[in-house]
Specification:
The protein has 146 residues and is α+β, with helices and mostly antiparallel strands. 27% of the residues lie in helices and 27% in strands.
């Protein structure tokens, strides 16, 4: 990633997109009038549209916080004002984004393959084993009564 690590487990990156006839290819949420995250009126990417400019570029992700558009800070903007800023941003658009870093599992220096592993194995096994143990206990008590 062509970015820097900011304090608090975040990274920042500048992404340049070229507008397509259908737009930049993503939706936003947030703003001072409709906070997406509690106590944070920032603008966030809510959806990447398939085959849009952002999708084809591949760097912008759902959940990214957009800090600036073409150098203009998005802080303290109403949602509709942010939308208008994107609409009037021109053909070549520069986005400064912030992304929460994902914790890495494994030894120090290990880099994951970027795929989410889903639920940890223990989170799936423990309930299953508990149900199996309960079923065995019930079955044994039933057999003793016969």
């Amino acid at each position: 990633m062509n970015g820097s690590v900011a304090g608090g487990g975040f990274s920042e990156e500048v992404i340049r997109l070229t507008r397509k006839p259908s737009g930049l290819g993503f939706n936003i949420v947030g703003g001072t009038d409709q906070q997406y995250v509690s106590n944070d009126s920032s603008i966030f990417v809510s959806r990447i549209k398939k085959d849009g400019a952002a999708y084809l570029d591949g760097r912008l992700q759902e959940g990214d916080k957009i800090l600036a558009v073409n150098g203009k800070d998005l802080k303290d903007l109403r949602h509709k004002d942010a939308v208008e800023l994107f609409r009037n941003a021109g053909y070549d658009v520069s986005l400064k984004i912030q992304r929460r870093l994902q914790p890495q599992n494994g030894p120090v220096g290990h880099q994951g393959d970027g795929e989410s592993g889903g639920l940890p194995l223990a989170a799936m096994l423990v309930p299953g084993l508990a149900l199996a143990a309960a079923a065995i206990c019930i079955w044994l008590r039933y057999r003793q009564r016969m």
